[in-house]
Design goal:
Blueprint: E1 8-15, E2 25-31, E3 52-56, E4 64-68, H1 73-82, E5 92-96, H2 104-115, E6 121-125, H3 130-136, E7 142-146, H4 150-153, H5 159-168, E8 173-180, H6 186-194, E9 205-209, H7 221-231, E10 238-240, H8 244-247
Parallel strand pairs: 1-3, 2-5, 5-6, 6-7, 7-8, 8-9, 9-10
Antiparallel strand pairs: 1-2, 3-4
Length: 251
């Protein structure tokens, strides 16, 4: 049987700029394709399949070679491992997008090939594909899940999918990120926090002020302080973390 394939947009070494691992070195694998169309999306180049993937020549070099799509897991692993020098430079291989869970067979094929070289999987996902997560969850070390609020995305909040996704991730390390805008309401945030009730493993809840894209504007600082105070009465770990990689001028 032929290996599953996926269209990839980028493979590169960089600094994690979102969530609880801000500042940690990750090796990023950006997938093409997404099942959502958020108005604040800052990776629109990855929404549709591209003919080539930009693969960094050496970790941190910012020199890229264009390689043809699609990739089989074997070829993707080769490109990833070429960047894994020196050893232990990267804490995780970060699968991002787009939406990686559109390609569960590819992830199942890729994960063991890089895990044996000390690169566990960090999955960045919009949290709307619980059936796909169920297939890959055993080979994922950490999940960074978005909760997609209608006030921020311009699309209805997929509450049922988010709830089921969190259930599937019950035994996996999880952080939940919510992009918040000037239009976000406290009721939306309370509903999101309540999805985490009863979870045994800790799951930090990250409020991420939107980086202005597509007309979306961030909330006032006072709103962030009030929201955090309200949510801390319902959830033990609520943090406010902006997109730090944008401050560094990093993609």
């Amino acid at each position: 049987m032929a290996s599953p394939t996926a269209h990839l947009a980028e493979i590169f070494s960089g600094i994690q700029g979102e969530g609880v691992f801000v500042g940690v070195r990750h090796l990023f694998v950006r997938f093409c394709g997404c099942n959502r169309h958020c108005r604040y999306c800052d990776t629109r180049e990855a929404i549709e399949p591209t003919p080539t993937c930009s693969v960094e020549d050496a970790a941190g070099s910012r020199r890229f070679t264009e390689e043809p799509n699609p990739f089989a897991p074997e070829r993707a692993a080769e490109a990833i491992l070429r960047l894994s020098d020196p050893p232990r430079l990267h804490d995780y291989a970060s699968l991002t997008g787009g939406e990686p869970l559109l390609h569960p067979d590819f992830i199942i094929g890729l994960a063991p090939r890089i895990a044996e070289h000390g690169l566990p999987i960090y999955l960045e996902t919009n949290g709307t594909l619980p059936d796909a997560l169920e297939r890959v969850v055993a080979c994922v070390r950490h999940i960074s899940m978005d909760i997609k609020l209608e006030s921020a995305t311009g699309e209805p909040t997929p509450w049922a999918e988010h709830r089921r996704f969190i259930e599937v991730a019950a035994l996996t390390a999880l952080q939940v990120k919510i992009v918040v805008t000037a239009q976000t309401t406290c009721d939306e945030l309370v509903g999101a926090a309540d999805l985490l009730k009863g979870r045994t493993l800790p799951a930090p809840l990250v409020l991420q002020p939107v980086t202005p894209v597509g007309g979306a504007e961030p909330p006032e600082p006072g709103c962030l302080l009030r929201w955090q105070a309200r949510l801390l009465r319902r959830h033990p770990d609520v943090r406010v973390i902006p997109q730090v990689h944008r401050l560094m001028g990093q993609k």
